[in-house]
Amino acid sequence: VTTIGSSAFYNCSSLTSVTIPDSVTTIGYEAFHACTSLTSVTIGDGVTTIGNRAFVGCSALTSVTIPDSVTTIGDSAFRECTSLTSVTIGNSVTGIGNKAFYGCSKLKTIYCKPTTPPAIYYYQTDAWSDLSNTNTFPSNSGMKIYVPRDSYALYTSYPSTSNNNMSQGQVKWYGYKSRIEPYDFE
User: Fold this and answer.
1) Which pTM value belongs to this model?
2) DSSP code, position 27
3) pLDDT confidence tier of residue 170, bands split at 50, 70 and 90
4) pLDDT tens sequence across 75-100
5) Can you tell me the distance from the alpha carbon of 53 to that of 7, in angstroms, rounded to the nearest whole number?
6) 3 state DSSP class of 94
7) Which pairs from 36-40 meet CB under 8 Å and 24+ separation?
8) Pairing mode, strands 86-89 and 63-66
9) Helix and strand tally (H, E) in the chain?
10) Residue 162, exposed/middle/buried by CB under 10 A (0-12, 13-18, 19+)?
């Protein structure tokens, strides 16, 4: 098995735990959508893509570690995971989709390991009109985003408006500046 297909476990409300083997490279669209009893997910080291809406509405999921093999986290991938309190984003992630963690009302801790800030995608007519509201992460009180200490300045610098190469509304991390803290990853 190399792909968990679209809607493969859609609305499997009795599913409590899943281990995705290293042979899997892609978790498809809505693969685990509305698995409301899912409390534990282990994502194998072969996964490179977490598809759009892959875990949307998994309201019992409390934490997730995205392995270093993953490069893309799709739009709304973990949206409305209302029990999610912590996320670790592996060091190879280059793009985080629109509203990837939107509605995760208990999310307090994000460990973001890439030394180059991943692109944050969101859809808006004027990409520069409101950098503080990208909707990728919630604006939960007390939420912190921990980034590599040596990359802190990259994550918190104001983006250059002269860079018009903003595919799908690509935005830097400036909007989350007040939540970003330097961290020493092992």
Assistant:
1) 0.90
2) E
3) very low
4) 999 999 999 999 999 999 999 998 99
5) 10
6) coil
7) 36/60, 37/13, 40/16
8) parallel
9) 1, 13
10) exposed
How many whole angstroms separate alpha carbon 92 and alpha carbon 6? 24
pLDDT of residue 131: 47
CB atoms within 10 A of CB 32: 26
pLDDT band at 134 (very low <50, low <70, confident <90, very high): low
Which among 147, 157, 120 is positioned nearest to 135, based on CA atoms? 120
φ, ψ for residue 173, nearest 5 deg: -85, 5
CB of 181 closer than 8 Å to CB of 147: yes
Q: What is the pLDDT of residues 118-133, one digit of tens each?
A: 988 776 544 444 444 5
Q: What is the phi/psi pair of residue 179, to 5°?
A: -105, -10
For residues 69-98, b (16+ Cβ closer than 10 Å) or e, as one string? Answer: bbbbbbbbbbbbbbbbeebbbbbbbebbbb
